Amino acid sequence: MATVEITKDNIDETLSKNDIVLLDFWAAWCGPCRQFGPIFEAASEAHSEAVFGKVDTDAQQELAAAAQISSIPTIMIFREGIPVFRQSGVLNQSALEDVLGQVAALNMDEVRAQIAAGEQG
């Protein structure tokens, strides 16, 4: 699946209707973002089980602010609507593949239990 443009109008639906969502926060003027773009796109073609979304931080300043994006590129990965990974900077293809494998292998019952324990403590 090719990457999709994520905006304030489709972010909630994208996160709620898909098991795994990767978001690439980027801008056209950002050199490292342009370097990471083809890596992200190639991964989107190889992993049809996940949604790969691109968030243009210039056009979607509200989303970038809500996600507390302070440097780009930043990748965020959501599993079942829960943010489970975040990293700024360029990931190479093998690192992105590794992270995707770890996210897919997560026991989401355990993740939700950890979140609940953290909220109580």
TrEMBL record:
Family matches, as Pfam families: Thioredoxin (PF00085)
Annotated site, Deprotonates C-terminal active site Cys, chain positions: D24
Record organism: Boudabousia tangfeifanii
MF term (GO), any: protein-disulfide reductase activity
Superkingdom per UniProt: Bacteria
Domain Thioredoxin: 1-105
Protein name: Thioredoxin
GO cellular component: cytosol
Site annotation Contributes to redox potential value: residues: G31, P32
Family: Belongs to the thioredoxin family.
The organism's taxonomic lineage, starting at the top: Bacteria, Bacillati, Actinomycetota, Actinomycetes, Actinomycetales
Keywords (A to Z) from UniProt: Disulfide bond, Electron transport, Redox-active center, Transport
S-S bonds: C30-C33
Active site: C30, C33
NCBIfam families linked to this entry: thioredoxin (TIGR01068)
InterPro entries, per the entry: Thioredoxin, Thioredoxin-like_sf, Thioredoxin_CS, Thioredoxin_domain
Membrane spanning stretches: none
